[in-house]
Amino acid sequence: MTKTPRRVRSSRRLAKNLLLALSLTISAAFAQQSDRAKLGSLETGESVLFVRSSGGEWGIECYGGTSPRLTQQKPVHIEVFRAEEDIRELAAGYRTVKRLDSDIDARAEIAYGENVIFRIQDRWSLKGAVVSLRRKVEVVGNAPDGFSSSFTFIVDPSVRWSDVNCLAPSALYGDPTYNGDRSPGGTMNYAARRFLMREDILPAPLFALSFGNGTSVAMLDPSPRGESTVEETKLLKDVMTDSRFQFGALGVWQADERPIEFGFQFPGTVSMYAFAPDAQSKPRWIRRYHPIAQGVAHSYEVNFRFGVNESFRDVTRNTWRWAWSVLKPVVITIDVGQLRRVLTDHLAAQAATIDGRTAIPFAVATFDTIRPQWNWTMAAMGFVSKNIECADQLLRESDRDTTGRGQKMRKIGLNIISSMIRALPTVPLQATGYDLATGKPWTGERQEWLAPWLRNATEDMRVLIRAYRRERALGRQHPEWFNWVKTYVDWLILQQRDDGSFPRRWKPGSSEVAESTGTTSYCPGPLLVMMTEETGEPKYKQAAIRAAEYIWTNFGTRGLFVGGASDNPNITDKEAGMLSMEAYLSLYESTKEPKWLDRAKAAADFAESWIWIWNLPMLLDADDAHLHWKKGVSIVGLQGITTRVAGSADEYLDWAVPSYAKLYIYTKDLHYLDVARLLLHDTKSMVALPGRQYDMKGIGWQQEGWRMGPGGPGRGIGGHRFWLPWISANHLYSITGLEEFDPALYQQLAKRN
User: Which helix (H) or strand (E) holds 528?
Assistant: First the structure.
């Protein structure tokens, strides 16, 4: 055999070694590449990647744009409750990450003890500026304990707690100062660096973080269910385990100088501070779990929206509209004409006359009783009593109906107005209401309800000037109406302070301030603008402009509005946004300056974020006879009230239907038309009508409000079952105000499906 030369053998070994080295290099490159799987890139510039650790498990990262880097090395977290002192936290990365079309399928397993395995299947997808997670947890085996699962992002450690402004609709709008100390979005939770919100207190299951560099990230449950039980929503027990709990919790927190975390837990566990006078400063944890049982259903979805170049006001507007587009609130149309007639007949029937004085009582039971409410003879202006606005609605109906029905309504309306003027003849006002039984100031309990509030007086006086104009156009003169209002307004503008603000309240019959805060300085704006139009004197409108600038500078620029609900201690609320929108619209209509329209839009965007746009169901085991909000009736259109009582709701915002219609006409933004239509129809769901009287004592009745979030009497129950005049006044103005503004648009929006 011929031997191969040594040089040839050496060359072959060299080639073989080169091939081996090349192979190892290529293998290393592929190995490195396989440690990263890219879901895709957001239109905001961030890349979303799954990254495998040295231990072989996969985590997720979002980075590359201007938003803070978001990471989670262990995307699967299971909390197991054994006892108060024995809560197990189990976490894992994904074992496998596979691409399915344009999505990523990620799976993990977590063992619990010897007999239970949690199998997690996550489906991740990306579209535009939104990353979506769809999770399903399968329980293999059984144990006597309860569990929940969660997904959280960890924010770049360079971001401090003070760098973040948070949005939770109707609960938190950046600054917690005016939310109350113990509320879910209040100052005690801020100090604890923890905001946790159950879905059932939120008009949309939405929570957003706004960062100092103009970026944001928001999370939304796109398919909320919300089911629970009577016992659970009364919060009688700190810990409960039940497969029927189908609500999550969203929030943000920072523990022990660790990075900020935010995410979603299912079922939802939250902490809260009790409101009782002697309540402790220690939070109460309300923990909810599913049973660890073979076959238990446990699944949910969470979407994350990324934003850039957004102020906090932009975050509120953009994330809310995103939630609206995803949740698609359904409008259930009503017979608007029938409702108008029912409500005006009902309103006229409530009028009471004593010794020649006529008024709409402050509160009337919606249930059968022969005992009148303790403050039945309270008669007040504005806010929740709206006696003059009720009179205005009766006068409007009398112009529509010239029969005996309409004539009776006209007489009642005129008598209500004249009675109020006679009872409050002097300025400074002794009060913003009186005792119908005596014709004198109310001397019973809760005298502060009828105090000389800025809002209560200016709200009804604005309505009176509007009625004065309409009557004058029909050849009916009421100089006493105008003179009464002008006397008040001439005194009022002298109370304006150098910064443009007005006090919130005065002492009876005095210019001495009882509540100095200027948070409600938006209230007199529309009235002051009308007084300039009536008198030709610019001083009134100038005062309105100064007040509007004060509100914008101190609150509007930050995306929150405060103090509208007179019976709350200067709290962030929807009525503040509603009234600010009206003030800015009145200035825009008077001056045509675009800045006032922009500011009206900001207030409108804030106010609409209090509207429920998902249908939280009534409780599975509730007796419908005991519920105040009945099963099968959609709660879409209901609104939160104040941040202090997040989860409580009423229908006050339907008064703003004409305002949202104006914004649509002035801006051509179709979204405002959608809001107007929803408020016109969906806010009347619990009015007793022919064929759906519910458990009201007659047609036309509706109680004031309901609790939808946990606590107190539980979901679907109100704090009381009384009708207040604002209910009918607001329902009616949503109809008559819209028709007055644009009859053709009214016909379009009132049309039934």
Answer: helix 525-535
Token pair of 461, please? 């006086």
Q: Average pLDDT over the chain, rounded to whole?
A: 95
| Cα distances (Å, whole numbers) of residue 35 to 52, 60, 120 | 5, 12, 21
Give every CB contact of residue 468 below 8 A, 6+ residues apart in sequence: 478, 481, 482, 485
For 197, phi and psi rounded to 5 degrees?
-125, 120
> What whole-number distance in Å separates Cα of residue 184 and Cα of residue 67?
26
The 10s digit of each residue's pLDDT in 143-180 is: 999 999 999 999 999 999 999 999 999 999 999 999 99
Tell me the angle at which helices 336-350 and 387-400 cross, rounded to the nearest 10 degrees.
Answer: 120
pLDDT on residue 569: 83
The answer, yes or no, to whether residue 27 has pLDDT greater than 60, is no
374 vs 435: CA distance, rounded Å? 12
Helix (H) or strand (E) holding 418: helix 404-423
For residue 309, give the DSSP letter. S
pLDDT the model gives residue 9? 42
Q: Is the pLDDT of residue 22 over 80?
A: no
- How confident is the model over 522-541, as a mean pLDDT? 98
The encoded tokens of residue 304 equal 């994350």
Residues across the chain = 753
Residue 471 has pLDDT above 60, yes or no: yes
Provide the terminal-to-terminal Cα distance of the chain, rounded to the nearest Å.
98
- Spell out the SS3 assignment of 548-599: HHHHHHHCHHHCCCECCCCCCCCCEEHHHHHHHHHHHHHHHHHHCCHHHHHH
- Residue 652 is predicted with a pLDDT of 98
Which tokens hold the place of 629? Answer: 């909000």
Please state, in angstroms and as integers, the Cα–Cα distance from residue 421 to each residue in 317, 362, 481, 660, following that order.
Answer: 42, 17, 8, 32
CA-to-CA separations, 13 to 17, 20, 485, in angstroms, rounded: 6, 10, 106
CB 225 within 8 A of CB 244: no
The whole-angstrom separation of Cα 572 and Cα 519 is 10
Residue reference for tokens 């009536």: 534
Beta-sheet pairing, 194-198 with 249-253: antiparallel
Residue 3 reports pLDDT greater than 50: no
One-letter identity of residue 545: I
Two structure tokens written together for 591: 């001056």
Q: Which amino acid is at 688?
A: A
Q: Residue 381 CA to chain centroid, in angstroms? A: 26
Contacts of 209 (CB under 8 A, 6+ apart): 155, 164, 165, 166, 167, 216, 217, 218, 252, 262
Do 119 and 149 contact (CB within 8 A), yes or no?
no
8 Å CB contact between 174 and 561: no
pLDDT in tens, 552-564: 999 999 999 999 9
Cβ atoms of residues 37 and 97 within 8 Å: yes
Instruction: Please name the helix (run of DSSP H) or strand (run of DSSP E) that holds residue 211, with its range, or none.
Output: strand 206-211
DSSP 109-155: EEEETTTEEEEEEEEEEEETTEEEEEEEEEEES--SSEEEEEEEEEE
Sequence-distant (6+) residues with CB within 8 A of 675 are 604, 608, 611, 660
> What is the DSSP-derived secondary structure letter of residue 632?
T
pTM of this prediction? 0.95
